[in-house]
Write a structure and sequence with these properties.
Structural class of chain A: alpha/beta
Oligomer: heterodimer
Distance between the termini of chain A: 49 Å
Strand order of the largest sheet of chain B: 2-1-3-4-29-28-30-31
Strand order of the largest sheet of chain A: 10-12-11-14-15-16
Number of helices of chain A: 12
Shape of chain A: globular
Radius of gyration of chain B: 32 Å
Helix content of chain B: 25-40%
Largest interface: A-B, 44 and 47 residues
Number of strands of chain A: 16
Helix content of chain A: 25-40%
Distance between the termini of chain B: 31 Å
Number of helices of chain B: 18
Largest sheet of chain B: 8 strands, mixed
Radius of gyration of chain A: 21 Å
Chain lengths: 387, 678
């Protein structure tokens, strides 16, 4: 294994290089730019033989990726925030056409007002578009999840978003252990498309008009594919362990299964939260952290175990549902309501933090946990907001 | 190559097969088959959302014998960029060996408007593909021109309806009769029409026109109302019709200018007074007039009402009471009087003159029931008779078919039971109104009687199952007796706000969908730029897509037309052979959008080129060549008048606009000539 100093963006580009994608459509948007800039350097230096399409917009970028993937080529693109929203109509086309597209998303706040910093509102707005979603904590995990997702997506024939925190992960340089080129190539293997427009001996029509008598069943096939993701994930994780010796799970369970008070948070914030958990546990306080990795599909039954002892669950999210609640909170409530066995249902709290890239300190995370432990949970919904 | 050889080649290539759903007269199929056949090597096609896409790929069927993908409206050029790049990537790695051509098929929207960005990007990046834009100038269901529509002002012909008028509609939530604004009137050209016949109503409409019918959901389940086109309807289905239209108040007459003594040629005048609004007595008199009366310009008013008839007595007393007439002449057969002002008054009411031309004007449909019935009584006293033995069933006969049709509809607004219109031929010489007929004539008649309302209190649910709208004040269901094809007719349609339906010939019918694109030429009338009294239609000149493509410095751009397929084929061959992007823009005369007869497609296409509206030219490696220069270019009116959507701009008051259009066309052609010389 080689150790390189890579930012999150560079690590993802490195992964794509090792996979050897056939086509990369790109349109720049902060903070995804390190991904496409690094990759462009690899192409310019002859380190990878990928055809790059510099489209005139994100909508065209995903459109071209869809066209390429439907033509037998392993194709990817990357985006953030407004770029994701601009290509929004193409998301359901990709999943509807069952194309295994891997798309890194450097999570960034959505307009208005305009803001380029870390926020999960962009990928959270696309939860129902038929894309799988994984959230990475560090550049290391981003590197591994990109390689993992390529194989997973091609196994499920569903597109996938690999989400990293904008700036906090995408632009932060850390040591990353990268695998051997050959091992990565062997792991992902050859792309086996379900159909190929370039097979001119067997012409096909893709994207037909389905009237009310046919549409429903076609869409259901895509929904059913989501029910197969769990077994495919486990199978690919097994191959991953065999090839690279590393475990890939649905979530990270940091003392969560043993604790009565569990904090749930995504991505890089979990690093700081784990420091707080360590500190409190050394004070003999019963706290733990649960960090979801695979968020779509959300495997409700799998979340019973890590929350089996929980009496208090705090869901801390970097996105809001105006007029409703944050998305992970809703999924946790569903988990407890539908699948929980405890006679007494735990208290579930929802807080929103860090919108527009505002940082959250370990002190603030500690305050939340202490307040719950003291049975006087913080009432305010928005952590870190100026009163 | 001649056209026979071209046709053979297209058949052999068989890139796009029949069974698609394009309209009669649509040139899309011709254009696509010609262009896709021009490639010797396999073609992979990306299509924008468009007529070409929707009509050819209704799952699970497809017309395409070549690999074909549809993504979304805006991105056909971006999609082909991805496909072409995937091909390059795999060819480089040795995974693909064969040569493939790439083609985009898009309508003017998917090229000019929403598709322009992706097209521009693809041209700039220099992908190796052909972009075919078929320009039908706008984004694209009708009733016969004889259809009679229920409006606030009464019954009117569909051709008389104006934008902004209030028409009656069916509120689908409350199932009540409501008034809605008409936001568009469309002349859709000559089309094949069918006739639906029920016991009491009939209407002519095109096969795709939707009507409101009952959908039975089975025992114990609630029935519902759904829209079905004529093509989907079957004999025996229950269709929604209007059964009652209650008038609110008497009609107030417009003041007319009276003649007085001393006016030109008026030496003496009978003093009379004119009524301000309708009364039962007046309506009876007018009924008598329609059936048996006539007026002459000199002021003569006459009625064929013989001595001893009830009609004569009523007529005389009405003239005395209402108008204050003092002198009335009578003989054995006729009643007559003289009054220029009464003649003027009767003329202003809209009954028309002459036995064959008399109609029931629209305002009569707005009267209260009692006045309508008085009018009908007057009609019966003149030209009708009552069958006493058949439960007070009446019969009315007239030489005017339209009068009988309108009477039928009038009776239906009173919830009368009315039969079919029957035709009777009378030979020359037969005595009619005491005079022999000068030639063979046709007479039309209907039978009608009063209907009792259902006693819904007795078996409410049973009745509701049999008749879905039982208890409804204004609407009823009738069983469709027959649906027959009756040939081609001039057709129209309305657009109604809110409910999107209106009442034509007593049926509840749906309105139409026709919008503007940036390719729509100046002066065109579409639903989003309708022509009307203050606007003649689309105000801006259309974008010149070929020039936009040339501005990207691509290797090949061509403009072609459907009337010259050899030219189109040659251009497509060149386009495929060129390395890099090529753009072909083809004029597609869409019969629906152009509101022209469907068999005129090729003729109209030719006029477009002959008038320099759509010149044929090529731009190859920086050099422009005009392929066809008409010896004498025809005036733009010749092209515009083939399509009724340009009707407003051809009116005399819009002379200046027409001039500016001709000037722009001449200017653009001159610019092309200058470019050619460079």
């Amino acid at each position: 294994m080689t150790r390189l100093g890579l930012t999150g963006g560079e690590a993802i580009a490195y992964a794509f290089k090792q996979i050897g994608v056939d086509v990369f459509s790109m349109y720049p948007i902060t903070p995804q730019t390190p991904i496409i800039e690094s990759f462009s350097r690899f192409v310019a230096n002859g380190e990878v033989d990928t055809e790059v399409i510099r489209t005139e917009s994100e909508h065209s970028a995903l459109s071209a990726t869809i066209g390429a993937c439907a033509s037998g080529a392993r194709s990817v693109t990357a985006t953030s925030s407004q770029g994701l929203l601009y290509m929004f109509e193409m998301l359901s086309v990709a999943s509807g056409l069952r194309l295994p597209i891997v798309m890194p998303v450097a999570n960034r706040a959505i307009s208005a007002p305009i803001n380029i910093h870390c926020d999960h509102s962009d990928s959270m707005s696309a939860l129902d578009q038929g894309w799988m979603q994984v959230y990475c904590e560090t550049a290391q995990e981003a590197y591994e999840m990109t390689i993992f997702s390529q194989k997973l997506s091609e196994k499920c024939y569903l597109p996938i978003m690999v989400c990293i925190d904008g700036f906090f992960t995408s632009h932060n340089l850390i040591p990353v252990n990268v695998f051997e080129d050959k091992k990565v190539k062997d792991f992902v293997g050859e792309f086996k498309p379900a159909y190929n427009l370039l097979d001119t001996d067997k012409p096909i029509t893709v994207g037909a008009l389905a009237l009310p008598d046919t549409y429903f069943e076609i869409r259901k096939e895509m929904f059913d594919a989501f029910l197969e993701v769990k077994s495919n994930y486990l199978s690919v994780a097994k191959d991953f362990k065999k090839s690279f010796g590393k475990e890939i799970n649905f979530y990270e369970d940091y003392f969560s299964s043993n604790s009565e008070t569990v904090l749930i948070v995504l991505s890089s914030t979990a690093q700081n939260a784990k420091n707080v958990v360590d500190k409190l546990r050394s004070q003999k306080k019963d706290v733990g952290l649960l960090r979801p990795i695979l968020y779509r599909p959300f495997l409700y039954e799998e979340y019973i175990k890590p929350l089996s002892k929980a009496k208090n669950i705090i869901v801390l999210e970097r996105s809001e549902g105006p007029g409703s609640f944050s998305p992970i909170y809703k999924d946790i409530v569903l988990t407890i309501f539908n699948h929980g066995n405890a006679k007494e249902k735990p208290n579930i709290y929802n807080h929103v933090f860090g919108l527009g890239g505002r940082e959250i300190s370990e002190k603030e995370i500690e305050e939340i946990l202490i307040s719950v432990l003291n049975k006087k949970p913080i009432k305010k919904r928005y952590i870190g907001i100026k009163e | 190559m001649n056209t026979k050889e071209l046709a053979k080649r297209i058949d052999e290539k068989n890139t796009m097969v029949s069974g698609h759903r394009t309209c009669a007269g649509c040139p899309i199929a011709i254009i696509c088959r010609t262009v896709t056949s021009a490639s010797d090597i396999p073609v992979v096609c990306s299509s924008a959302t468009s007529c070409a896409e929707v009509t050819t790929t209704i799952y699970p069927q497809t017309s395409w014998n070549i690999p074909w993908i549809h993504s979304v409206f805006a991105n056909s050029a971006a999609t082909i960029s991805g496909i072409e790049t995937a091909y390059k990537a795999q060819k480089k790695k040795g995974k693909i060996k064969k040569d493939i051509n790439f083609l985009v098929i898009a309508g003017d929207g998917g090229s000019f408007d929403i598709g322009l960005q992706a097209l521009s990007g693809a041209l700039e990046r220099g992908h190796d593909f052909v972009f075919l834009c078929y320009d039908n100038e706008g984004y694209m269901n009708c009733l016969s021109k004889d259809s009679l529509i229920y409006t606030k002002e009464g019954l009117k012909k569909i051709t008389e309806i104006k934008v902004g008028e209030m028409v009656y509609a069916f509120d689908q939530k409350t199932q009540k009769l409501v008034l809605k604004k008409c936001s568009g009137v469309f002349n859709n050209g000559i089309k094949k029409v069918y006739e639906i016949e029920t016991l009491h109503h009939n209407i002519k409409a095109t096969g795709n026109h939707p009507f409101l019918v009952v959908k039975k959901n089975g025992r114990g389940k609630e029935n519902e109302l759904v829209w079905k086109t004529i093509e989907e309807l079957k004999k025996g289905e229950q269709i929604i019709t209007l059964k009652r239209l209650k008038g609110e108040k008497p009609f107030t007459f417009e003041k007319i200018k009276l003649s007085k003594k001393g006016d030109y040629k008026v030496n003496c005048i009978n003093e009379i007074k004119l009524p301000k609004e309708s009364t039962t007595e007046l309506m009876l008199l007018l009924g008598l007039y329609v059936g048996d009366g006539w007026i002459r310009e000199k002021g003569e008013i006459g009625f064929a009402l013989p001595e001893g008839t009830v009609g004569r007595d009523k007529c005389i007393s009405a003239f005395k009471n209402i108008f204050g007439v003092k002198k009335i002449t009578t003989d054995k057969y006729y009643v007559s009087l003289n009054s220029i002002n009464i003649v003027k008054f009767i003329e202003s009411l809209g009954f028309n003159k002459g036995a064959k031309n008399k109609i029931i004007p629209s305002w009569i449909y707005t009267l209260p029931d009692i006045q309508k019935e008085a009018f009908i009584e007057g009609l019966l006293l003149s030209d009708g008779y009552i069958y006493k033995k058949k439960k007070d069933s009446c019969r009315f006969v007239s030489a005017s078919k339209e009068l009988v049709q309108r009477l039928r509809l009038l009776l239906q607004t009173l919830n009368y039971r009315v039969g079919k219109i029957t035709v009777q031929k009378k030979e020359k010489g037969t005595m009619v109104v005491y005079r022999p007929l000068l030639k063979d004539a046709e007479y039309y008649s209907i039978c009608f009687s009063k209907k009792d309302d259902w006693n819904i209190d007795k078996y409410p649910f049973q009745y509701k199952y049999q008749n879905f709208l039982i208890g409804n004040q204004n609407f009823d269901t009738e069983i469709i007796k027959s649906i027959t094809e009756v040939g081609k007719e001039q057709t129209f349609d309305l657009r109604v706000e809110g409910e999107h339906n209106f009442i034509a010939d007593g049926f509840v019918v749906h309105n139409t969908g026709n919008q503007r694109s940036s390719a729509t030429p100046k002066g065109a009338s579409t639903t989003t730029t309708p022509s009307g009294s203050s606007s003649f239609g689309k105000m801006e000149f259309s974008k010149d897509l070929a020039k936009i493509a040339m501005a990207h410095n691509v290797p090949y751009v061509a403009q072609a037309n459907t009337h010259n397929l050899i030219d189109l084929y040659n251009k497509a061959q060149k386009a495929f052979a060129k390395k890099g992007p090529a753009v072909i823009v083809v004029f597609a005369a869409c019969p629906t959008n152009m509101k022209a007869p469907s068999e005129q497609t090729i003729a109209i296409s030719k006029l477009a080129t002959e008038s320099n509206f759509w010149p044929l030219y090529e731009y190859e490696d920086g050099k422009l060549t005009i392929n066809y220069k008409p010896e004498k270019r025809i005036a733009i009116e010749e092209f515009l008048k083939t399509q009724t959507k340009f009707k407003e701009v051809l009116k005399p008051k819009n002379k200046e606009i027409l001039k500016s259009i001709q000037e722009e066309i001449d200017k653009r052609f001159n610019d092309l000539l200058k470019l050619e010389k460079l």
